[in-house]
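Data deposition worksheet. Section B asks for the primary sequence of the deposited chain exactly as it was used as input, without tags or linkers unless they were present during the calculation. Section C holds the resulting structure in token form. Section D is free text for depositor observations; keep each observation to a single sentence. Incomplete worksheets are returned to the depositor.
Section A, Depositor: J.P.
Section B:
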Amino acid sequence: MTNKQSTEGQPSIAKAALFGLCPQCGSKTLFAGLGQFADRCENCELDYSSFNVGDGPAALLVMVIGALIIILALIVDAAFRPPFWVHVVIWVPFTAALTVLFLRMAKAALLAAEHRNRAKEAGKDDVS
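Section C:
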């Protein structure tokens, strides 16, 4: 017999990340600001502060978006040979916009995955 957690009524990780939904009840209560989690869900009282999202989403985005921007900048440079200031005007705002856009979704996805998998920090009781 397996001990599976019931996921009835819970949004998928992708849906929770895309729309900022509570991973337990599906209400749109995950964020209090642009990228800041609310303290708890106003609907089901799930405590968001008990989840440890950390800097994982930011580190991943820096690597992925950084690689994407470098590739795009090299393609534009090879095709058009614009002056350096054009690169700055194009890529700095584009990088900032992509980071802000995807950081919110990445943080929400990690929190939803932690909730779905009942992830927690290891303690003395977890050592065999």
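Section D:
Residues 84-116 form the longest helix (33 residues).
DSSP finds three helices and no strands in the chain.
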